[in-house]
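So, can you check these tokens?
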Amino acid sequence: MNENETILIIDDEIQIRRLLDITLSANGYKVIQSSTGKDGLIDAASHHPAMIILDLGLPDIDGLELLKKLRDWYSKPIIILSVRQSEEDIITALDQGANDYLTKPFRSGELLARIRAAFRATENKKDAEILTFGSLTIDLVNHIVRKNNNIIKLTSTEFSLLCLLSKNQGRVLTHQYILKEIWGYSYIQQTQYLRVYIAQLRKKVEDNPSKPSLIITESGIGYRFGE
């Protein structure tokens, strides 16, 4: 791991901060700790971390409100780590700009994997003209998708859906967000409509559509584009 990849932890639980410090430091990350939302904002602005791990239950400001404040200017990955497990909180956080959401208690190995995925997504910058994922390539300018060098025929809607997912690689996109971006506000409740298109797209781009490795389902929430 690159020691220049600084991660800011904003969490009021000292035990969690210590655990994260040990885990992240052992994997080559530099760690900065903040115990309040106010300190977190100051540390984010002064240290310019490569990533923020944010708790929602802070003593001075609600984590969702802090997330909104950060997203006014901070464009790097933010992972939520919280005891809140309701679908509403998870969806709200993701829709407000969080890249990922894990609930406490968490497994260190899973957190590290999510961190690596978020950094990979940052490296594959969204404005790249051609995105490559194993044997799959997506030419964003010419609207051409190839798998194993063979052109895959996609409808315009399928292409738009694939682009939205792939350009947000590693980030969980909610059903409502995808529906709004592709079809508009009038479709944000049509989750079954989205499932049909996802199934069609998987048949065309996945090696094994029944065990997808690219378009991954986040149960009850949405979809995430894998490696």
Summary: The chain has a mean pLDDT of 90.
